[in-house]
Each structure stands twice: as structure tokens, then as C-alpha cells.
Amino acid sequence: MAKVLTSRKENYAQWYNDLVLKAGLAENSAVRGCMVIKPYGYAIWEKIQAQLDRMFKETGHENAYFPLFIPKSFFSKEADHVEGFAKECAVVTHYRLKNDEKGGVIVDPDAKLEEELIVRPTSETIIWNTYKNWIQSYRDLPILINQWANVVRWEMRTRLFLRTAEFLWQEGHTAHATRAEAIAETKQMIDVYATFAREHMAMPVIQGHKTENERFAGALDTLSIEAMMQDGKALQSGTSHFLGQNFAKAFDVKFADKTGKLEHVWATSWGVSTRLMGALIMAHSDDNGLVLPPKLAPIEVVIVPIYRNDEQYDTVCEKGEEIRKALLKKGISVKFDKRDTQKPGWKFAEYELKGVPLRLALGMRDIENGTIEVARRDTLTKEVMPMEGIEDVVDKLLVEIQDEIYNKALKFREDNIHYVDTWDEFVDTLENKGGFIMAHWDGTSETEQEIQTKTKASIRCIPFDNPQEEGKCVLTGKPSKERVIFAKAY
Amino acid sequence: MAKVLTSRKENYAQWYNDLVLKAGLAENSAVRGCMVIKPYGYAIWEKIQAQLDRMFKETGHENAYFPLFIPKSFFSKEADHVEGFAKECAVVTHYRLKNDEKGGVIVDPDAKLEEELIVRPTSETIIWNTYKNWIQSYRDLPILINQWANVVRWEMRTRLFLRTAEFLWQEGHTAHATRAEAIAETKQMIDVYATFAREHMAMPVIQGHKTENERFAGALDTLSIEAMMQDGKALQSGTSHFLGQNFAKAFDVKFADKTGKLEHVWATSWGVSTRLMGALIMAHSDDNGLVLPPKLAPIEVVIVPIYRNDEQYDTVCEKGEEIRKALLKKGISVKFDKRDTQKPGWKFAEYELKGVPLRLALGMRDIENGTIEVARRDTLTKEVMPMEGIEDVVDKLLVEIQDEIYNKALKFREDNIHYVDTWDEFVDTLENKGGFIMAHWDGTSETEQEIQTKTKASIRCIPFDNPQEEGKCVLTGKPSKERVIFAKAY
Fold first, then answer.
1. Does the domain spanning B294-396 belong to CATH 3.40.50.1820?
2. Hey, where are the domains in chain A?
3. More confident residue, A103 or A461
4. What percent of chain A is predicted at pLDDT more than 70?
5. Do A68 and B152 touch (CB under 8 A)?
6. Which of A7, A192, B135, B242 is deepest in the core (most CB within 10 A)?
């Protein structure tokens, strides 16, 4: 088979782009920066959504829907938020088109909005403006709401899934009576994201606090999960923000506590997006195509029949159909590719490209011997196995594959975390090894900024339960009490 | 209990609005014409989505996602489409805000888009511009894709769920090699909608063809399902369009058939929206609140404990918990409202307002007698029943309620279909009886328009398998071969 992808070694960025296109996940659209998510890519996103939605509901959250548009003035209400968000946005200024003389359409100058509307880049402002009417007393709290929605941030340099002008996401917005409860919610949701990343995406993540520089605009604390991609770069995969009373103050949201005293409400927000698709792809895939963890694979097993003539086709298909049903009965999502228009070799390559975790090939000799060929996508190994009870073997194998994909990614990450104590080492490691660098930092935004300007590496997070140790800042030599994670990031 | 709703008789429109607000389904937002869908309303929408999504997948469709924005020029490409759609739209003209001197934000005049972007009112144009790259040969067909998305149409007079500037919907967009296949798809999807309306919404619908006047902009034929609301007005609840080759020609989408000949592709599109929520509410609910068919009720059964003191509370709750588990085991969605902060009477009214199909009340006497009180929301009747095996009784009752809600709506509709042969009768029936009027029509758009101008009644549809009979147009007296359905409509 001719290779359809640029190899990772040759050009990692090109490999990623090739893979997204060739595996039929997404493509660029006619609108700058906006992508089309194709059916196979969307099917993976649906699996991500379904699992996260389950986890949100298990932790007591409900879904709701808030407007796409936000009045411009809302952004000015929270000072930090406007700085961070109201800049690169899609602005709606008119509400009507009209015909021109040439048979085209033009914007009707008479249909100018009094106040411009911003296509939501995130929904804190419109939601807190709504919560104001929902909250009077402590009895109305907590409010635990999530929204699945599209948002728009006018990015200049875009990459499929990783950074697009429009993207899909979920945003949780909760309101609480106490600071402690809001902090606990912030932590709970970053834990939900970490569990999801590990158990479903098979992707190890480090949880921690963002530095002040990297905090969400309007938050008192931002927690994140950080994953390592195969090029050693970090990908922030989810964030959970403790917003304090900032938005409650900006939108004047108060509640009467049990004693009747009025207090501002405490808030959190948290989100993950279609960026997770980028993380999933880059964490596991190889030069032959996607590698999907079984739990997020739209097709877990594909059966390919091997035959020379119509009679063989019928015989093999009959057996294949039996196996398909046995797998279905076990709750395994299986595709039996009986198409007579494509050769087995073409099918093998196609499902390899699409990352189907297991491939079963079934020919006449198998039927005579009572065997079947089982090929694993993650290891690219194959083995002839007894056909009898193959559904149980497949069931176990899928669990094994899920675990081994995780372990492989974990080992890769562990192998690429470097403890560094001097500036020369820092620069050399970044240049020649990549990965995550554990180094001391003097705790100032200036130093963080200077390191980033010099090396393009930023502080990804200060991990939870970070070991405390005396040290010296890798740039300034000033005293430090803990190492933080530096890395180049997506 | 004080009535919380205006009665239907007093003011139907006000009753509807009261109900949507008081039952916690939706409310108006700070953005003109855009609604907030509240958790309880969204939970019903999620049930609608889940079932429709299942039915779309069973008929071979896949989901995908296309951009929110459409370049302005795309609308000019299909002549009828631009007339129908590109007028009342949200237009994005700029992509950046900047700070002004007063601490607010203004639109940055330097960030003007070269070509304005329209927030999608429907996605035919952007999708067919995409399909152009996906289709070369007959092997690439059919394409059977659906999208769940938000759309925006700048409506001047809005009503929650029924007509809002932004709404949620699904839009199917399919591409076919032959005219016959596209027509079959158009029909299949209106059948899916009709089945969904009947079996899940418990709402009878009439399927038929729209007249030319009422056709989708760019379609050769529009099929619809029409339901009768309790005020006798019609509500168009779903449409399926046969688009012919119009969009393929506008976007130059051709395929090579088996002989290598290039032909334009045939298209359909079909959609239902959050408008279905309005239909669901208006079809069944009463002056006490929502009446939900069990299949779409977020909570099918609520259990309310009745007690006088802590000891009784514990005893009743223990038994209630047993029943909850027994119902859950049957796959019934049940809420056990153990809250000690609200009285039973308050809870009864609350769940009546929210349309929970069955309420079980459980007190000390019930425990002594081995009984439980079962109250039906649809009939407002209650009955004391044996507690033993109550889960089986509930299971059967839910099926019965689903059926009876449908039958009640069907009877109401049958009672309000009037066969009318003269203009005086037509006007009199519309004014004094309402409902659907079966009348002859001469088949011209002019007459249809004149009738609508005179009476506000429009032709809802020409039903499938419509009996053919000789008659005279109710307005012009010209010859007609069949009756059509006239009604005032939402």
C-alpha cells in the first residue's frame, strides 16, 4: 500500500492535517476558520458528548440553552472579562439584506441594530444576566446547569479541531451560596474531565492550577487538565474556573441567606470542546492512520470477508453474519463490510486509516479450520484464533486495547518529563528533547512572560499536591518552593 | 389552590405564555426574540431529539456539522432561495471590538469583513457548496446527512417556541443519483415525522403537499405534517422538501453515472425544530398546566410522601424508596420527592403544572392497608390501589395514558374538521367554529391569496391520497377536483 499520510517524523503538523482529512474527520469550509465536521468525525464527537453528558447528569447537572447572541454592553460589565473575550468576536450589526440592481443581495442600511450583538465566545455574561431573575433566596441555590453549544472566537491562524473560529463545546455554569461550595464544584468538574480523559480517551492528564497569566478572564482560579501529544507539546484539554463573586457583582445577583441577609452568589464555569478531538487524534495515532480507544470508536470491530467467487462469498457471509450477531449481542458495535465493490486489501487499509480497534478477517480456510484472523489496530499485530467463542475473546481484547493504549501514552509521557535546574539545560532540553519540563520558577508573571518570549514554552500548570521543595528559579535564580510544568503548547 | 394560569377560554394566547413560563419551560432573554430554554423544557427537547435521532439513524442517516456562517454571495446562487431566505437575517459585518475612552467597547471600524457573513437561517447553500467536493461519481451517492443546530431568522413578532429569532432544529440534507430516489426520501422523512408525532408526541397529524405559495424557497415540492391545536388553529410541525436539481445546479454539483455521463445531483432537505415544543404544549395541556405524553415526559412518575412527624416520614420514605426502585427496575423514570421543605399540596400542584403523567401518594394509612393513591394527570382522576405489584400497574397505565392522550387529541380534531361548500358557510365556520375546513379550491395562487387576505385562513396542505370529487371553488365557483384543508395557522 502506498502511504497516504506524511509521517510524523517528516512533518508532524502535516501528518495531523493529512490524517484529519484522509480519515474523513473534518475539513475546512468556505468560511474562513470554520470547519465542516464530517460524519466519521462527528460520530466520535457524539460518543464524547454522550459519555460526558452522562457524567454531568450523574453529578447533578441539568442541560439548558441560552441565546447565541450577547448584547455588546454585557461584555463591559466584568472588567477582566472584557479584556479577555470581547476582542476577536463576530459582530452582528444588521438584521436584513435586500436585493441590489444586479440580482445580488446587499446589507440593508436601514436595518442597523441599535446595539450590536456579539456571537457568543463564551456565555458567562448572558447566563448571569439570566440567573439574576432566577435567584432570590438560598432555596434557589445551587443552580447546576450545562449547555451544549457552538461558540465563535475570531482566530487568525486556525487548525482543524485545535483552533477554529467556530467550535462546538459544552459550558457548565453553576451558582452557589458559599465560596467553599463553588470551589468544591470547580474541583469536582476538573476531576470529571480527568476521569473522562483517562478512562475514555485513554489519555493521561495532569491536573493543576493555571498561573495568573493563563487564567480565564474573570476567574479567581482556573484548573486545567494538560495532556502530552506525541510531539512532546502540551494540549490543554479542559478547564474549570472558580469565578468567585465577580459575575454576580457585575450582574448584581444576590440571594437572601437563611438569616435574610443579602449576599452575592458564588460562581463556577467549566468547559471542553471539539479540541478534544485534536487531543484524541494526536495522543494515539500513528503513520498508518487513526488509533482510537475502543470506548470512543464509532466502530469497535470490523469483519471483512475473504473470497474468490460467488459461492465462497455466500458461505463466508453466512458465517460472518453469525459472528456479527454474536458480537452485537455482547453490546459491541460491529460493522460487517460485505461490499463486493472493494477488495479486502483496500478495506484493510481503510479501517486502519479510520482507527477501527479490531479487524476480523474470515476466509474459506478459516471456515474449514474453525478459525478467524484477528488484527489489532494499536499494535498492528494479527493472530489466527478459534472461531468458537470469538465474541468473548473480542470483548476481552477491547478492554485490553483500551488499557494498553492508555499505558502506552502514559509511558510516553513519563519518558518525556524532564527535571531541569539550569537555564542552559532548560533551553537545551526544549530544543533537543521537547516534552514537559519540571523546573523551579520565582512565581512572578514577569519571569513567566520572559521565559515564554525566549523559548515559546509556557507554564502549563502547577500540579495538585505538587511536592514542595526548596529550589532556585531556572531563569532568575530567585528562591522557589516548587517545580511547575513548562512546555510548548497547542 | 389558586389557579396560576389564565384559562384557555379566557385568553388562549395568554394561557400558552403563562404555561411556558410557569412550568419552567422557557423564557424571553435580554436579546430580542431569542429565548432561554430552561432545564425542564430542555429535558423534553432532549427526549424529542433522542427519539428522532434514533429514527434518522435507523433510516440510514448520519450526523455531521456545517458552519454557522454563510457567505452572503451564496444566497444569490439559487434564485428562489434568496427571495425566501436571505432577507430577515442576522448579518455579521465585523470581527473585532476595541476599547473606547469611557471603559466600554466599540466595534473596530478597521475590522470590517470583506464579504459579510449571514448567520444560517437554513443550510442548503453552505452544504451544497460542500457536497460539490464530496461527489464525483455515482459511488459517492446517496449522501444521507443530518445536522442538529441552531438557526436564526429575524422575526419581528416572536412567541416562545412557536416563533423565535434563534431556534434549535435538525436539518437533513440528502443527495441522490435519481429523481425517484430523492422523491422517495422526501416521502420517507415526512413519514418519519408523522410516526414520531403520533407515537411519541401523541399528536395526530395530517400529511400532505403544500401549495406552490407555501412551498420552501427553492423546492419543487414541500410535504408537511399539520396538527390541530386546541384553539382549532393549525400548526405546521415538520416539513420535507424535494429540491429537484436546483441546488445542484446553483452549486454545480454533478456526478458521473455508471456509463460515465455527467448529471446534476438530486436533493432533499427536511427539518423539525423547537416549534415542536409549542405543538406538544398546545395539543394536550389544560388549565391546570402541562399534560405530557409519557414517552416525552422527563419524569413519568412522581412519588409524594404524606406524613405528620419525623417517625412517619422515615416509615413512609422507606416504603417510597422500595417503590422507586421497583419502578426504576422497569425502566420507568421516577422522581421520589422527599423534600421536607414543601407541603404535599404544593408538590401536587407543582407536578400537575409540570405535566408529570402519574403521581403516587403514600401515607401511613396506605402502609397499614397495603395501598397507594394513584393520580392521573391527563384525566385528573385518582384511585387507591393495592401497593403489591404497583410497578406493573404503573407500567400498563403509562401505555394507556399515552394512547388515551392521542385518542383525545384525535377525537378533538375529528370533531373540528368541517366540510364546507359555500363562501358564507366558509366565513361563518371560520368565525364561529374554527378548526380545519375541507373545501374546494380552484387551484390558483391568486384565489388562495385572496382567501387568506379575506379570512386569514391559508391552505395547510393537500392531503396524501386525497379523495377526488367534482366540486366548485368556495370563493370563485370555478371547477375543482378535490377538497383542500384551510385553517388559520400558527
1. no
2. 12-91+122-284, 299-396, 417-487
3. A461
4. 99
5. yes
6. B242
**Confidence at residue B81, expressed as pLDDT on a 0 to 100 scale:** 77
Tell me which DSSP letter residue A466 carries: P
Q: Report the CATH fold assignment for A299-396.
A: Rossmann fold (3.40.50)
Interface A:B, Cβ pairs < 8 A: 186
For A215-307, list the strands marked E by DSSP.
221-228, 234-244, 254-256, 262-264, 266-273, 301-305
Q: Is the pLDDT of residue A86 over 70?
A: no
Give Cβ neighbours of residue A115 (< 8 Å, ≥ 6 apart). A71, A72, A73
DSSP A40: H
Could you tell me what percent of chain B has a pLDDT over 90? 93
Chain A nearest CA to B367, separation (Å): 31
pLDDT at A152: 97
Mean pLDDT score of chain A: 96
Q: CB of A137 within 8 Å of any CB in chain B? A: no
The predicted structure's pLDDT at residue A366: 96
Q: Coil, strand, or helix at residue A224?
A: strand
pLDDT tens track for B208-244 = 999 999 999 999 999 999 999 999 999 999 999 999 9
**CATH superfamily placement of domain A417-487:** C-terminal domain of ProRS (3.30.110.30)
The Cα of A3 is separated from the nearest Cα of chain B by a number of Å equal to 22
**A42 near B CB under 8 A:** yes
**Portion 139-178 of A in contact with B at CB < 8 A:** 139, 145, 149-150, 152, 154, 166, 168
Question: Is the minimum CB–CB distance between B277 and chain A shorter than 8 Å?
Answer: no
Confirm whether the ipTM is greater than 0.90: yes
> Residue B182: how many CA atoms within 13 Å on its side-chain side?
26
Question: pLDDT tens digits, residue range B79-104?
Answer: 777 777 768 999 999 999 998 888 78
Cell numbers standing for residue A19? 490524517
Contact check, Cβ <8 Å, B87/A73: no
CATH number of A12-91+122-284: 3.30.930.10
**Of B45, B53, B68, B113, which to mutate for an interface test with A (greatest number of A Cβ within 10 Å)?**
B68
Strands (E), A9-142: 26-28, 35-37, 62-63, 69-71, 91-94, 97-99, 105-107, 112-119
Cα separation, B459 vs B457, in Å, equals 7
* Predicted TM-score (pTM) above 0.95: yes
pLDDT grade for A2, boundaries at 50, 70 and 90 = low
Tell whether B332 is within 8 A of chain A (Cβ).
no
- Nearest-by-Cβ selection for B46 from A63, A71, A90: A63
Q: Is the dihedral of CA B180, B181, B182, B186 positive or negative?
A: positive
Q: Which CATH class is domain B25-284?
A: alpha beta
